[in-house]
Amino acid sequence: MADALSGVVVGKIVNQAYETIKNIQEFVPTLERSIEISNALEPLAEQIKVFNDVLDRPREEIERLEKHIREGKELVQKSKKLSLNLWKCLLFPGQRAKLQKQNEDFLRYLSLVQVENKRDLMEVLTHVKDNHVNQIRGLCGAPQEPEFIGMVKQFNELKVELMKDGASVLVLTGLGGSGKTTLAKKLCWEQEIKGKFGGNIFFVTVSETPNLKNIVKTLFEQCGRPVPDFTNEEDAINQLGHLLSQFERSQILLVLDDVWPGSESLVEKFTFKLPDYKILVTSRVGFRRFGTPCQLNPLDEDPAASLFRHYAQLHHIISYMPDGDLVDEIVKACKGSPLVLKVIAGSLRNQPFEKWLDMKERLNSQSIFESNSTDLLCRLQQSLDMLEDINEKECFLDMGLFPEDQRIPVTVLIDMWAELYNLDEGGIKAMTIIHDLITRNFINVIATRQVATETDMYYNNHYVMLHDLLRELAIRQSKGESFEQRKRLIIDLNGDTRPDWLIGLNQQGIIGQKQRKVDARILSISTVENFSSDWCDMQPDEAEVLVLNLRSDQYSLPDFTDKMRKLKVLIVTNYGFNHSELTEFELLGSLSNLKRIRLEKVSVPCLCILTNLRKLSLHMCNTRDSFENCSIQISDAMPNLVELSIDYCNDLIKLPDELCNITTLKKLSITNCHKLSLMPRDIGKLENLEVLRLCSCSDLEEMPESVAGLNKLCCLDISDCVTLSKLSNDIGDLKKLEKFYMKGCSNLNDLPYSVFNFGNVKHEIHVICDEEGAALWEQYPNIPNLKIDMPKVESNLNWLHGTRS
């Protein structure tokens, strides 16, 4: 009996010991897991706080997360103390349950945050898409800080006036090219000005033909508010005044840049009765009704010489510059104009002595009787005449084909120049010319968003800007020849006005519009909102490039389009705020030489047969009618397409399956199309595809398995496809792949085993990714010829708004 009782007691002790060991075994891993989660979440929470502040996001979510982490740490600390006291092992199961519940709460909360973050990301991306109009058309808040040399006195005078309390209108006036815009931009970056006005600094370019409603719409976008449909100008001004009056801080600075003569009444409409509201106007006239203007006079001798020497030796400290009086004479001949000094200096940079001497003689040969504006143009002309490469000069003159104060997409120039001057398709020669024009200070190039490397030959985010005077120079040069000999015919139509050369006796002998034969190779037509498309009967039989710049909600291709038998390039750009309904698209069907079409901010109509089209570019377009509701399949409409580029087309949900039948396609770029969720499953049929870009398509969840069948694919870009969770299982079979961009694919958790096959290729495969992407590749070490590059990510968010020189 005693033995039996002893056995029972021993058995219970053994069982208790077993339970103790079991509790300890189960408790310790749970505790370690809790510590691991807590340690991982704390730095992430700090990062989220930083981005919350930058993006001005609500703090409730991060405060909830911080509370979870705080409570979790307290529980972990209690559990650590408990684990040191094994005699309290009976408490382990209860404490372990608390830790498990905490971990489950964390996971449940993080799952919810993932969903909320996806929503927030879509909201931000939508905001980016909506603001893209602003990126191309105008500026959000303060523009990019410019280089600033001279003009110190005027800068300080304006700064003092802007720092004063109360509302006022300040006018900064001077000749074209005197630095008014540069000075206004620099003021926006002055620390005291920024300290006073904070984020309430707005910069709008007005230009020669201002549209008040569009200016107000730009300001609504800069404020991050939905843009209303204004019934008229009075309604637009009233709603803007109501918006500005709601700002938390009353200090507001509005810069109205490039206000033309006769626009005083427009400036007056922006003068609201707000306590500390400043308007800074830049103009070539003084507008004295607003008080004594700040006159921007030509630079004095010393600052003029400093500016000239700066740009003559820019980035080349040891570049040649003659000594003695020659430089002083050239500087003096520039008459203190910052623009002329910059352009002349750029044209002489690294040039031999003879070029400097020739420039001095050219400048001194100008007539002293010429008007100021004509004189400046003539002096700028001297630098243009020094361009030895005829293609460079012609390319610069092409800048006059586009509206004033608008950015010119680099890809448009590449398309034009490839057909007009036989420059290469890839853009290498075109970019060489652009860089040389930058060096000579004829143009500026800006990038609205950083790309991964400079060797991509991908320029969808690059734009050219040039000063109004230089644009005027390009137009003047194009119009210098007789009408019959012009290479470029530039037509600006406003309302019912028509060019003089179209007015005369018609076929019935009545004064009115007449039929006119046009021999120019390039035809540029700019119209305004109230334009009537039925305007003339031209015969542009020799035109190879047609540039249509419009601002209307509806636009019909000109009736003479189907007569343009030599047309190779069509560029249609809508500079208005709403998409333009494009009609008469079928006129293009008879043009057998048409190779390139670029459409921006239009609703693309149903496709027509374009047998010889090689490249189609759609930017900020509505594509539904052309891709979903069209009776003609895309493969029938464009059977010989080589390149398709679709950017910021936010109604694009899926590509048409018939696209895969266009086996001639070599480049397919679908970028910033945030609603794109499906790629054609038979994409592998594109047997000649060399480049596939799917970057910033935030709804794209998976890549079709057939991608692995693209045997000629050299470049694959899935950057910032934040929802993409899976790559093609056989992606390692892409034997020609050289560049693989996968930065920002935050939902991609693993790589398929087939990536080991990359080790069988003889060439280098360059993977461009972030730290998370690099961690995925670490699971597949020792793949020969694989190079992982993690480019530095910029900490600011300037790319959301774009920049402008």
From TrEMBL:
Belongs to the disease resistance NB-LRR family. Coiled coil: none annotated. Residues 658-742 form the Disease resistance R13L4/SHOC-2-like LRR domain. It comes from the Eukaryota. This is Disease resistance protein (CC-NBS-LRR class) family protein. Keywords: Plant defense, Repeat. Residues 154-284 form the NB-ARC domain. It holds the Pfam family RPW8. The keyword Repeat applies. GO terms for biological process: defense response. It comes from Medicago truncatula (Barrel medic). The gene is 11421066. Residues 4-132 form the RPW8 domain. The keyword Iron does not apply. One of its GO terms (molecular function) is ADP binding.
